[in-house]
Design a protein that fits this description.
Helix content: 25-40%
Shape: globular
Number of strands: 20
Strand content: 15-25%
Number of helices: 13
Structural class: alpha/beta
Largest sheet: 10 strands, mixed
Bound molecules: inosinic acid
């Protein structure tokens, strides 16, 4: 029973916490796209450890974590993450496996990105240029580290080359053919695999708000191309959405809140990027975008996160349509400049008091239940999990 956990918004939906929580039921946690543009902070034995590349499943000592072929890996940052884990007492040993087909982020990728970083509001982690090289067929893959002649062609400077050599020599056993490995696990059927997405559908290079997107496919297609598993190997897809919306970086955002409320939610929800520290813009839940993301991903159940951040508001709104020029539509437009013209049509709900420390669905305030019921009705998909706090235990099974 393999599951994918996919962000249904512009990233930062709280996937990390959810993956950490779900990891108990899985043996292998596999990332399939993106790179160090993702970020998730884990509190482990009172230490705060930011992870950008390695799935948080690494904190569970009986789990294997895989960096799939769809990823672009900054080796220096990966080495730093491994060291940080070691210092915290978490040995990765043979529990961290890296695809030989995954691409390596090169120093040049950082240089190239500097030219357009500001305009697109990227994370500055070399992601776009690394994927461009992959598409141009000029990239370097992890498996290529074992071919000295091939490495020479890149004419890397001494320092970078020695970083590649030392990483290769230390982690020789960890750099493997993950396609074969995953297929063996799936054929035997005795291991359960959790596929962890980074970013979200609205940042997908094909289905997001292009060009204000990332350079990979966080949607379900990315699970297949980023790991080599067959579609039949996936039995469920948990789509993750915040109970409101945030967006970091530039690009259209129809349900953005007014200034005061934006600041309030930003503060209460600690909406600052884990990778760049940038403040995230905050807005109401956009059901037009959510339904679209559910359609694209084949989401089988919804995890609704950070519901507690909306506690205490007098009213809570969701967008059920867009007014674009004279027309009202519930279709998510393919062009960013059309989305920029969209004025949301809102449905308003009565707010609720507090969800703090509530452990069962039954005990949630009725007003919140109305809100959740409407999300289910509109999207046609069941909400299976609700997160109502920062702590690991603040998750309610519905
Ligand atoms: P890039 O992925 O660094 O190229 O950035 C492209 C866009 O995706 C920018 O708007 C970033 O802010 C956004 N982005 C990339 N990774 C994340 C993430 O993990 N969470 C939220 N936004 C992200």
């Amino acid at each position: 029973m393999n599951k994918a956990v996919i962000g249904l918004q512009w990233g930062d939906e709280g996937k990390g916490k959810l993956v950490d929580w779900l990891s108990d039921d899985f043996d292998i946690i596999c990332r399939y796209q993106g790179g160090a543009n993702a970020g998730h902070t884990v509190i482990y034995r009172e230490q705060t450890i930011p992870l950008h590349l390695i799935p948080s499943g690494i904190f569970h000592r009986d789990k294997t974590c895989i960096l799939g072929n769809g990823m672009v890996i900054d080796i220096k940052l990966l080495q730093e993450e491994i060291n940080q884990l070691k210092e915290a007492g978490v040995e990765v040993e043979d529990r961290l496996l890296i695809s030989r087909r995954a691409h390596v982020v090169l120093p040049d990728h950082y240089r190239v990105e500097r030219k357009y970083k500001k305009e697109l509001g990227t994370t500055g982690k070399g992601i776009g240029p690394a994927y461009s090289d992959k598409a141009k067929r000029t990239g370097l893959r992890m498996g290529d580290l074992f071919n000295e002649k091939y490495l020479e062609k890149f004419e890397f400077d001494k320092d970078f080359l020695s970083l590649l050599h030392s990483f290769r020599d230390i982690y020789k056993k960890n750099i493997v053919n993950t396609v074969e490995l995953l297929h063996n696990f799936i054929e035997k059927g005795n291991k359960r695999i959790l596929f962890e997405g980074a970013q979200g559908v609205l940042l997908d290079i094909d289905f997001g708000t292009y060009p204000y997107v990332t350079s990979s496919n966080p949607s379900t297609g990315g699970v297949l191309t980023g790991t080599g598993i067959s579609p039949n190997a996936l039995s469920s897809i948990t789509g993750v959405t915040k109970s409101y919306t945030t967006r970091v970086g530039t690009g259209p955002f129809p349900t953005r809140m007014k200034k005061n409320l934006n600041s309030k939610i930003q503060k209460k929800g600690q909406e600052f990027g884990a990778t760049t520290g940038r403040p995230r813009r905050c807005g109401w839940l956009d059901l037009v975008a959510l339904k679209y993301a559910i359609k694209i991903t084949g989401t089988t159940d919804i995890a609704l996160t950070k519901i507690d951040v909306l506690d205490g508001l007098e009213t809570v709104k969701v967008a059920t349509g867009y007014r674009i020029h004279e027309d009202i539509t519930d279709e998510f437009p393919p062009e960013y400049w059309n989305l920029e013209q969209a004025t949301p049509v809102y449905k308003e709900f009565e707010g609720w008091n507090s969800t703090k420390n509530i452990k069962s669905y039954k005990k949630l305030p009725d007003q919140l239940k109305d809100y959740i019921n409407f999300i289910q009705e509109y999207s046609g998909i069941k909400v299976s999990l609700i997160s109502n706090g920062k702590n690991r235990g603040d998750i309610i099974n519905v």
